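User: Good morning. I'm curious how adenosine monophosphate would be positioned relative to this chain. Could you predict the structure with it bound?
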Amino acid sequence: MITLYNTRTRKKEEFEPLNDRKVGMYVCGPTVYDYPHIGNARSFVVFDMIRRYLEYRGYNVYYVTNFTDIDDKMIDRANKEGIEVSELAEKFIAEYRQIANELNIKPANINPRATEHISQMIEMIEKILDHGTAYVAEGDVYFDVSEFEQYGQLSGVDPEELSAGARVGVDEKKQDPRDFALWKAEKPGEPSWDSPWGKGRPGWHMECSVMGKHYLGVPFDIHGGGQDLIFPHHENEIAQTAAAYEVDVPVKYWLHNGFLTINTEKMSKSEGNFFTAREVLDNFDNQAVRLFLLSGHYRQPLDYNTKALEQAEQSMERLRNAADTLRGRISILERKGIGHTNADDSLRTANEVVRQSFEREMDDDFNSPGAFAALYSFVREINTHASKAESPAVLRESLATFSGLLGVLGLDIEESKVAGTESSQEMLKAAVELLIELREKAREEKDYATADMIRERLGEAGISISDTKDGPTWKIG
Ligand code: AMP
Ligand code: ZN
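Assistant: Good morning! Here's the predicted structure, ligand included:
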C-alpha cells in the first residue's frame, strides 16, 4: 500500500485512486521562455520517478504535463528578442524535450500547449461567470474570491489576511485585491484571441485548470508541481475548477516537490543563482545528474554543488560496476558450468531483501534516498558474494532485480547503455569508420577478399554495412 503526503490535507494518506487501477496525473510543465535550470529539472525528474513507481506497482497512469506557451514572461522575452511568441515557444519546447530525453524522463501521454486550448478556457470562464463567482471589468474577467468560501483550502492562506494591507494596483480593474484574472484584455503588441469579452488572452491559472479537466476530467487523482506553485497557482486552479463544475475537490492528491537550492537559497532565474540543465548535463554524467536529483526526499530541499554531483558520479559508477560484476560472473559460469555454494544462498536472500526494502521505502511517500540505501546494500552483497556464486540462475535473477529496480528510478544499467555513453559511442563510430575506409581502399586495390572479410566480421559483431550510391553506410543490427 502506497502512502503519500497530500498538501491538501497536510498529512500522509493511503493512495486510493478514484478509478481502481487507473490514475490521472497532471504535472505543471515549464513556461517555455528560457532554458530550464537544474531546479526545474528536479521537478520533472521527481514526478517522473513517482509516475514510474506507480506503474511498477501496477497502476495504469495517464500522465499529462503541459507547456505554458503564453503568459507575461513569454511575451516580455519574445518582445526583447524581436520574435513571435510562438517562435520562442518552439525553440524552448525543443530544448525542454532534449533535456527530458537526456534525463531519461519517460515521455508524457500528452504534452498539451496552453494556446491549443483557448476555446475550452473561454468555456470554463463562462461557466464560472454563470455561477456568479467571477465578474467582467472592461474586457478583463476576474475570479471573485469573496464568493468562494473554500478559498485557502490548499495553501492555508486566510483570505481575510490576504486582503488586509493589500491594495488594488492603479492599472487594475479588480474589485478586491484577492481577486485574480481569468482573462486579460488585449494590450498593444500582445497575442490575443477573440472572446465574448473582447480580444484578450487567458490568465496562467486558467491554463492548467482547463488542460487538467480536458485530459483527465473532474475530479482527477494527482496534481504535481514545485512548492512555489501551491499559492497562488494551485489555490487558484482549485477555485476555478471547483466554481465552474461545482465540485468540492477537483483533485484528490496534491503533491509538491521541494526546491533545489544553492547555499540554501532557492535556485531561480530571477535571483540569478542558477545553473542551466544544459550546462550541468554537459559537465556530468547524465545518469549521475538524475541520481543526484533523486538523492534527497522529493519534498525536502536539495542543495546543488559540484561535490554532490561528483559523489553522484561515484555512486553511479558503483552501481554500474556491480552490474558488470554480475555479468562477468555469468559469462564465466556459462563456460564453466553450474554449481551451488553458500554464496548463491546469500545472493538469493539479498535479492529478496532488496526488493522488499526498496518497496517499503518507495511505498512510504516515494522515499527515493531510502530506495538507494537498499540498492547500495545490495551492491555490497553482490561485491561480497558474486565471485563465489556458482549458479547462473541466481546471478541472472540478481541482475534482473538490480536493473529492474534501478529502472524504476529511471536509471539504466543495461549493457548497451553502459557502452552507449557519449564517448564510447564516439569511439565506436571512429573505429567503424576507419574499417569502412580500409574496406574501400581494399576494393580500390581489387583486394576483394579483405573487403569481404571486413564486411563479414563487422556483420558478426552486429554492425551491417550497406553500399549506397552515395557510398557505404553502416548501422547497428
Ligand atoms: P516554471 O518553468 O518556472 O513554471 O517551473 C517549472 C517547474 O519547476 C515548476 O513546477 C516549479 O515549481 C519548479 N521549480 C522552479 N524552481 C525550482 C527549484 N529551485 N527547485 C525545484 N523546483 C523548481
Ligand atoms: Zn500549472
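The chain is about 50% helix and 15% strand. The two ends are 42 Å apart (CA to CA).
Let me know if you'd like a different ligand tried.
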